[in-house]
């Protein structure tokens, strides 16, 4: 079972953010962050990567880049949640589910009022 954190904004469908390591953020870092509208962290990670490749000795580039990739994968979901909260979403619930659809079903069973935002 995966734990999903639910963010809600009036008039918008609920956003379910899984609480786990993000393989997409691990592999694509700044692109994944920008895709999820976390632009400032995306620019920061990209800037650190460029600075590392430009100013660090060659033997340190690989370990620093790999470290940034691991940190991006570990922290990406939290950064995404912070981005949602900054855009006016409220963290309202935590739901367990086997996948996103199962978690959404459980959420709508507990909070049927959120179903109207999915239909509109």
Oligomer: single chain
Numbering strands along the chain, what is their spatial order in the largest sheet? 2-1-3
Strand percentage, roughly?
15-25%
Number of strands: 3
Structurally, the number of domains stands at: 1
Mean of pLDDT: 90
What's the gyration radius in Å?
17 Å
Distance between the termini: 29 Å
Shape annotation: elongated
Which stretches are low in confidence, meaning pLDDT under 50 for 5 or more residues running?
Answer: none
Percent helix, as a range, is 55-70%
Query: Helical segment tally?
Result: 6
What is the helix/strand order?
A: EEHHHHEHH
Briefly note the structural class of the backbone: alpha+beta
The largest sheet is: 3 strands, antiparallel
What does this protein structure show overall?
With 120 residues, the protein is of the alpha+beta class. The protein has helices at residues 23-28, 30-35, 39-55, 58-86, 100-110, 115-119, and strands at residues 2-8, 15-18, 90-97. It has a three-stranded antiparallel beta sheet. Helix 3 packs antiparallel against helix 4 (58-86). The protein is elongated. It starts with a strand and ends with a helix.
Describe how the helices and strands are arranged.
Elements: E1 2-8, E2 15-18, H1 23-28, H2 30-35, H3 39-55, H4 58-86, E3 90-97, H5 100-110, H6 115-119
Antiparallel strand pairs: 1-2, 1-3
Helix pairs in contact: 3-4
Index terms:
single chain; 120 residues; alpha+beta; 3-stranded antiparallel β-sheet; 16% strand; elongated
């Amino acid at each position: 079972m995966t734990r999903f954190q639910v963010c809600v904004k009036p008039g918008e469908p609920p956003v379910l953010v899984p609480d786990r390591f993000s393989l997409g953020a691990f592999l694509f870092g700044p692109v994944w962050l920008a895709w999820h509208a976390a632009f400032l962290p995306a620019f920061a990670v990209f800037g650190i990567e460029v600075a590392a490749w430009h100013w660090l000795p060659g033997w340190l580039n690989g370990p620093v880049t790999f470290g940034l990739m691991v940190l991006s994968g570990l922290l990406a979901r939290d950064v995404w949640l912070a981005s949602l909260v900054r855009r006016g979403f409220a963290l309202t619930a935590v739901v367990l589910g086997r996948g996103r659809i199962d978690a959404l079903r459980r959420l709508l069973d507990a909070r049927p009022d959120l179903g109207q935002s999915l239909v509109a």
